[in-house]
Specification:
Length: 453
């Protein structure tokens, strides 16, 4: 027991629960305590930065590089050390007294130990174990939440990069249309109204391209911050050219519910907190609430006379027999019990909401890719045939090209929103905080708006 009480908490013990939750990426999670460990993490990060970063690699890179995560791990380690120290018995109390009576000097030494504290040590150690489990679950929840934030931001950054390319195409088509309108007006084949419409669309395309450029920079830099990259690493960050393809089938609702029932960290954390409160009551609700006992060994010397003996000190509660302490423990248990009940109900509701959003986003993305794009391609092919047959003019053809690009932008946004909804659903399954996806609107419709004639 003495050896256990004096043992030092190691970082690996603090990180064990989090590593178990990380699965295949658990080897990337270490508390980097010296330059050698930091250099090793930097080498692993360089390997990841040497190629385009997918979502899983982005999460791994954050585990290796993020100073914010390192600070979080260090705080958790410090909390574990403090918790282990608090569970140990109080230190021995050594008293030394020197009294002078006339020509005689009396020396008294005593060594005291709190018996109540010692008797309750095993129960308090069990309570500390429950509290430590709760702290480590909370750490796992925070690390997984950071990973989900990285995944969502990676999706936004890749989508912004992909959208930027299509906004550039819209700008090029608008420039061509505006230039053609200028030339046709100069030879008298266009009136001012028709040319003004083309110029207005060109101005709108220029503005939207500028917005897309800024959005790409902002989303990329937000990802850089979450990854914890320095300026040199940020320059080497490579992202894929496009988002992942849609899955063939959506996830099954029953399977999602089954997995969530066994994996949700927030529910496990609420249960651990309740267990800790119950253990706390067993550790401090009996003898410690009524009386405190301290035993001491005493040795004294006065001149040539020596004496030794023992002392037993009891603090007797006269005004408070421990009822207030016991009531406080009962109240804390009630708090933990009701928080668990509320967490269970909120978890079920949130899972239903996130799954509904996931299915809706899947259906919209599938419709955009499977229906909207093929229809726009068919229309574009027919317009080209009509143009070759001199049935429509060049401006109608350019307007249809813009509409086709607008359909592609709509599809990319729907695909991005699906993967964001998928990440939010996964966070709900794990029981970690994550932002709900917010679909963007308007950009594709504006890009697709044909000029009136």
């Amino acid at each position: 027991m003495l050896v256990t009480g004096c043992a030092t908490v190691q970082p690996d013990h603090t990180l064990a629960t989090t590593r178990q939750q990380l699965g295949a990426q658990q080897d990337a999670l270490t508390l980097q305590r010296d330059d050698d460990q930091r250099a090793q993490a930097a080498r692993s990060a360089d390997t990841l930065l040497a190629q385009p970063l997918d979502a899983d690699a982005a999460q791994r890179l954050a585990l290796l590089q993020s100073p914010a995560l390192q600070a979080l791990l260090a705080e958790a380690w410090a909390a574990d050390i403090a918790g282990a120290a608090a569970a140990r018995p109080a230190d021995l109390r050594l008293t030394w007294e020197r009294m002078v009576h006339g020509g005689e000097t009396e020396l008294t030494r005593s060594l005291g130990l709190g018996l109540t504290d010692l008797l309750l040590w095993p129960a308090r150690a069990r309570a500390a174990d429950w509290q430590g489990d709760a702290r480590r679950l909370a750490l796992a929840q925070q690390v997984l939440a950071h990973g989900q934030a990285v995944r969502q931001q990676w999706l936004r950054a890749v989508a912004a990069r992909e959208l930027l390319g299509y906004h550039e195409q819209v700008r090029e088509a608008a420039d061509a249309s505006a230039e053609l309108a200028r030339r046709m007006q100069s030879v008298g084949n266009f009136n001012r109204l028709r040319r003004a419409r083309e110029q207005a669309f060109q101005a709108d395309a220029v503005a939207r391209l500028a917005q897309a450029v800024q959005a790409e920079v902002a989303e990329r830099e937000a990802l850089v911050r979450l990854l914890g990259l320095d300026s040199e690493q940020a320059l080497r960050l490579q992202l894929p050219e496009r988002l992942p393809a849609l899955p063939a089938q959506p996830r099954d609702a029953a399977e999602v519910t089954r997995i969530a029932s066994t994996q949700r960290i927030d529910l496990a954390l609420a249960r651990r907190e309740l267990d800790a409160r119950l253990a706390e009551g067993s550790a401090g609700g009996g003898l410690a609430s009524v009386v405190d006992i301290e035993a001491s060994l005493i040795r004294s010397r006065s001149g040539d006379e020596r004496a030794r003996g023992t002392e037993l000190e009891l603090s007797l509660p006269v005004l408070d027999a421990g009822a207030a302490k016991r009531a406080k423990l009962d109240a804390r248990q009630l708090i933990a019990f009701n928080r668990l009940a509320q967490a269970q109900r909120e978890a079920a509701s949130l899972l239903r909401e996130r799954y509904a959003g996931y299915r809706s986003a899947f259906d919209l993305a599938q419709q955009a890719r499977g229906t909207l794009l093929p229809l726009r391609q068919t229309i574009a092919d027919e317009m080209l045939l009509n143009y070759n047959g001199m049935l429509v003019g060049v401006f109608e053809l350019l307007a249809e090209a813009r509409a086709q690009v607008g359909a592609v932008i709509t599809t990319i946004e729907a695909q991005r929103d699906f993967w964001l909804a998928d990440a939010a659903l996964q966070a709900a399954i794990q029981g970690v905080p994550a932002a709900a996806p917010t679909p963007a609107g308007g950009a594709a419709a504006a890009a697709a708006e044909p000029a009136g004639h």
